[in-house]
Amino acid sequence: MEDSSTNSLSLELIQTREVSLRHSRLADQSREAQLLTVQEWLENYSSTNTREAYARDFRYFWDWLESEGLLNLAEVRRADLNRYRDSPLLKADSKGKPLTNATRARRLASVASFYDYCLDEQLLTESPVARITRPKVSKDSPRETLSKAQAQEVLRIVEGLPSPTRALISLTLLSGLRISEALSVTGRNFLNKEGHTVIRVIGKGD
Fold first, then answer.
1. Which tens digits make up the pLDDT trace of 22-69?
2. What DSSP assignment string belongs to 84-102?
3. Are 102 and 26 in contact, with CB atoms under 8 Å apart?
4. How many CA atoms lie within 13 A of 13 on its CB side?
5. Residues paired with residue 198 on neighbouring β-strands, in sequence order
6. Cα–Cα distance between 52 and 34 in angstroms, integer?
7. Residue 58 near residue 38 (C-beta atoms within 8 A)
8. Is the pTM of this model over 0.70?
9. Which of 84, 99, 96, 72 shows the shortest CA–CA distance to 133?
10. Which tens digits make up the pLDDT trace of 108-164?
11. φ/ψ (deg, to 5) at 72
12. What are the residue ranges of helices labelled H in 68-162?
């Protein structure tokens, strides 16, 4: 009968071997297998909008790698990411319109998220995105907001609409919720906090 120390050692050896196999698998896998890894990463996001946005942004990186002859995601280095950051693909859209820093930063964020996933899954030992300089993004929203008078006018206009529509418009106007977040609200989101009825919503970025 084996003692506990022997069992622990055997388990450690098995786990070490599994990690080693996973490391080599990422470096040696085909392009098709790499796509499966990308898909696994995207499936970690519960929000459909987030998955689609990251998939769309990561596609630019994937296409750029192919154009540069870099056919293995495990072989990408920091210098490659710097070249991608400064490439025409991250300078302007297909019509030649300059991309905003926010768009450029978001496309790099999708790549960083993928490599963070690989680190978490022990598919890599380091991320090529770490410590690269990214475009600076202002914390101020570029979108125009309604004045208090305009907001009050909106509430006046919706008074004659059906209750569900009026409630939805009022909720988004007064709380700043995205429409997808407002539409996801159910009875389970309602809570009592210090004598007040509140709605708890987990938004983008948790």
1. 444 667 777 788 888 899 999 988 888 889 999 999 999 999 999 999
2. HHTSGGGTB-TTSPBPPHH
3. no
4. 6
5. 191
6. 18
7. yes
8. no
9. 84
10. 999 999 999 998 888 888 899 988 888 887 665 556 778 888 888 988 888 888 988
11. -135, 120
12. 78-85, 101-120, 148-157
The single residue listed with the structure tokens 């991250």 is 90
In angstroms, the CA 104 to CA 189 distance is 35
N-to-C CA span, the chain? 49
Q: Tokens for 75?
A: 């072989």
Pull the structure tokens for residue 80.
């490659």
129 token code pair: 């995105």
In 3-state terms the chain splits into helix, strand, coil percentages (rounded to 5) of 60, 5, 35
Only one residue has tokens 């499936």, namely: 43
The Cα-based distances of 66 to 33, 61, 71, 173 in angstroms read 15, 9, 6, 45
Give the amino acid at 16: T
